[in-house]
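Exam revision sheet. Question 4 asks you to relate a sequence to its structure. Input first:
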Amino acid sequence: MRLLLACALVGCGLIIQPHPVANAEETVTIEITSVTPDVFTTGASVVLRGTVTNNTSQALSDVRVVVQTNPTRIETPATLAAIVATNPAITRNRSLVIDALSAAQGVLRSGQSATFTLTLNPATDGLTPGAVYAAETHLQQRTGTSWTSLATSRILLPYLAGQGDESQRPTAVTTVLLSSRPSLITPGVSGNRPAQALFADEHLGTELDTRLGDLLAYAETPGVSVVIDPLLYDEVAELAAGYNVRDAGGGLTPGAHQGSATEWLAKLNALLNTAGERCYRGLSGTPELAAVADTAYSGMVAAAATTLRPGHPLAELPLAVISITGRFDAVAAAYLTEAPPAVVIADTVATTVRAEFGTITALFAATNLTARDGTSPDGGTALERRTRLFSERYLAWLNGSPLVTVITDQSHIALETNMEELLDRAPLSSLEPPTAMISWTSTDATPLQVPAALVSLTESAAADFAHWSRIGDTPEAIQSSGNATISAAWSANWDGDWTAAISWLETRLAPIHTALTSGSVTLKITPEWYIGEDTAAMPVQLSNTMGVTVRVRVRFSTENEQRLHIPASEFVVIAPGETETVRVEPEAYGSGTLAVTAYLQDAYGNVINAPVQFTVSSSSAGALAWLIIIGAGLAFLVATGLRVRHVRKYGKRAATDRRSLAERLRSRFERAAAPETPDTQADLS
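Answer key, structure tokens:
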């Protein structure tokens, strides 16, 4: 990457080429400090101001500053790149002697600096609108009848058509990248056993108050797009919920940036609500695509593209893939076929990839990327980078391919702010493929040489998270966390420091691996179970001695399913160190004793423990026999009831008859004892 940037940035805007005078360590320098205005326009001149400095131990006499312009029109990005790379000599001279040296008879003492002012008029120099021109300033010293250049600087000057506010204003497609080196070791835990998140250091909190804070503020600029790394969002959310930091001795120190994280996250959420059309989600962790492609670690990029859980604040945003090294080849493209991005931003894209990815809408030049500390890779001044970047943008716009720049630190913000009055802002969504694509030739053929240790550790991480997702209570969230962790280990934010990446991944995996391997999930059941008339459901006790919450169920295999069937239990969630009891109801279809095997299953049907053997004895013909017996019993009871009813009915009639006879006999005895009357005689008869 450094080679790519070095080659791409040769002559970035203004190139300072010091010439030694007394010895190799003593130089004379010339520097342009301002350009007013920034560009040529019709009927206007450009004023160059700068300084020259004599850093040698000797006084310089007979010196002057001159400006040279080349009337050759630079009309395409390719021509500009070639001129920057080859730095051809400019032979057309216009001599303008600076006043300070004239007053001193052209003498520059040792250690002395002097300022100069030069004026360029496009009409005088034969320049015409709609192109970029190269101009050089020289500090020259007379040698006999000729002049020798002691120091030279070059600057690129666009010539816009029109005058003043009516001049051409190229479209600027500016994108802020919100991403940072991963630091989370252990996520926070809520619920019955809450625990705060643990971070490796405080760098993220510090960045929220500096680089990331300034980037988010600039992302609020109308027309500026923003690509948000989901891993960054999640880590800031962990900071906002309260966190600890691991100190040098392995202890815990309360985090100091919870307030900053809360405020930063609120501003980002507000941006998502008010400017969602300018917002994109990036690959989680911002993995280094070139490193992944070189290693051919399949699946990582696609996983990073699909790692967000449903309902995540960024889940509905379109995907923008940014290649920090600038390279996007067929291998990297193949990794994204399952989750095609809306935008791919890279500076070098193969023709075959262009054909396959017709949805690529923009590419950026890696010249605009700098180190995380804000320093420029080429060591040029902000003015030098500004003139080069604006020239690139202007030519790209003239050729129908607006140049996309990616802002990653404060120095980029300064460049963009300085050019604000010269640009028309447009979001990424305004670009239309395939015209909005430019490709800068990459000369960086050096492989990234990802160490084998990182590849091996990545495979171990994938195995641990896969195992955890199978037995865990939230498999989708666990797998998403695993994808994010792996892609973070390959993040471009490590700046190629794979040793640091390995150290972080080992630290991140340690508590997970320990939690998964330090215990197990076991089941206990009575060795002999008897199914009788009064038998209740069979209890099975499940214990979790692992360090993670699990979701499992119990399944049974009997010696003879035709005679005994035990259905699987429902899934049960068991917290670390907890025990749960599930109950199952055996179904017997005959008498006797049968062997049964019980085992635990995860959500995917995998057996996760050693099987447990026990026996089940049935003293009856089982459920079917009991139905027959109960049915026969009911028939007997019904028949008996009917017989009793019949007996009672006839008994009642007999009792009635007996009572009538007794009453007649008693009446007759009473009449027999009474005096005879005609009525009595009649009754007796």
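Marking note for examiners. The mean pLDDT is 77.
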